[in-house]
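Chapter summary example.
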Amino acid sequence: MLIIRYLLFFIGFNTLKAQSIQTVDSLIIPVVNYQQLQEQYFDIQSDSTIVITFWASWCMSCRLEMPYFEQLRKEFSTKKLKIVLATIDLSSHIESKVKPFLIQNRIQSEVIAFQDKVPPIKLFPLICPNWSGSIPITVVMNKTDGTYFETTFDSYEKLKQSILPYLK
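The structure predicted for these 168 residues follows.
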């Protein structure tokens, strides 16, 4: 009986390990422009809530709060909540900095990047008119309401409490 349990554990562990291995080459990060961002993420027609956090691999505050967004995604996986991590890194840094960070931290949330033709710094005033210029910045919205947080969430509870009013 002990041998069977060991074999089941070993087989299960190896299967789980094989499924969770992700490489820089296998990780796909779509590159979007402002119009695609508007159409695909800001034009909400369903009862879903979307949370988009704009971050960069070089931003320590962004990196520190990333596990909280992943935890939010996991906790509310049965709710109509979509988490999108929008990196503002240059496209030349996606392979060398963004993907390794995501893999190392086992981030499973959807990740998008912006085309370099339009720097994100020029997009933010269109998205958040009173934006001061700092990141991270998190946009939360559903089809009837929305807001943005120009702050670092220093705990999972703070992030969760900020998002809860927008969940349907």
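To summarize the output: The chain is about 40% helix and 20% strand.
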